[in-house]
């Protein structure tokens, strides 16, 4: 009876090892909306920032504006969490916030705004003529909505975070409200050697 129990236990142990090995052998599946095949990230060169100089880093890109009442501050707060939780790996990540409101977002104003969240976040702006081809290349929706708000008007805009890998390819996008854990997991995957 003992011999039988031993062999049965050994068989169960080997089966568990095999199942664990299969689970470990599964390729990583990114958690965002995957861009397959990855596409070269459209160029961004605005007020001293040039996306092409970020090769070797993972870039998290978001389009918004400084007087946004809700989505933009929430998303930048999440970007801050990602950078903090990455620890020393954050030196290989660049968060970029591109305005959809160039009429109000001066270079000084947008950088002051992003710095309030985390000094490592870069805020960029330009003229509407400079920004229009960038918005179009990234499929950014933008519409000014006049209203009686203290800000004067609101800008309705798409709210996706774009993930660009260290080789400069768009790999995934994430809708507003994506858990920080999902972003963090995908960034860590792309940072692995």
Task: Calculate Rg over CA atoms.
Answer: 22 Å
Report the total helices.
Answer: 5
Structural class assignment: alpha+beta
Question: How many strands?
Answer: 10
- Main-sheet strand order equals 1-10-9-4-5-6
What is the CA–CA distance across the termini?
Answer: 51 Å
| Assembly form of the protein | single chain
Q: SSE order in H/E notation?
A: HEEEEHEHEHEEEEH
Low-confidence stretches: none
Helix content: 25-40%
Overall morphology: elongated
Structure write-up:
The chain is an alpha+beta fold and 193 residues long. It is 38% helix and 26% strand. A six-stranded mixed beta sheet has the order 1-10-9-4-5-6. The radius of gyration is 22 Å and the shape is elongated. The mean pLDDT is 90.
Q: What key attributes describe this structure?
A:
10 strands; alpha+beta; 193 residues; two-stranded antiparallel ribbon
Summarize the structure in short.
The chain is of the alpha+beta class and 193 residues long. Helix content is 38%, strand content 26%.
Fold blueprint:
Elements: H1 2-25, E1 33-40, E2 45-46, E3 49-50, E4 58-64, H2 71-86, E5 93-99, H3 107-117, E6 122-124, H4 128-137, E7 142-146, E8 153-157, E9 160-164, E10 169-175, H5 180-191
Helix pairs in contact: 2-5
């Amino acid at each position: 009876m003992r011999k039988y129990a031993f062999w049965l236990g050994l068989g169960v142990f080997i089966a568990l090892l095999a199942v664990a090995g299969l689970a470990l052998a599964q390729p990583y599946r990114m958690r965002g909306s995957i861009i397959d095949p990855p596409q070269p990230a459209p160029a961004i060169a605005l007020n001293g920032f040039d996306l092409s100089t970020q090769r070797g880093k993972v870039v998290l890109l978001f389009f918004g504006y400084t007087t946004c009442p809700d989505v933009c501050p929430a998303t930048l707060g999440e970007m801050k969490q990602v950078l903090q939780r990455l620890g020393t790996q954050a030196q290989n990540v660049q968060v970029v916030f591109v305005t959809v409101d160039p009429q109000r977002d001066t270079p000084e104003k947008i950088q002051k705004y992003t710095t309030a969240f985390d000094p490592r976040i870069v805020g960029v702006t330009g003229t509407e003529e400079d920004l229009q081809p960038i918005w179009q290349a990234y499929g950014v929706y933008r519409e000014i909505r006049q209203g009686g708000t203290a800000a004067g008007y609101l800008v309705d805009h798409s709210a996706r975070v774009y993930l660009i890998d260290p080789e400069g390819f768009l790999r995934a996008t994430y809708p507003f409200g994506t858990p920080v854990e999902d972003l963090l997991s995908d960034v860590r995957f792309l940072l692995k050697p």
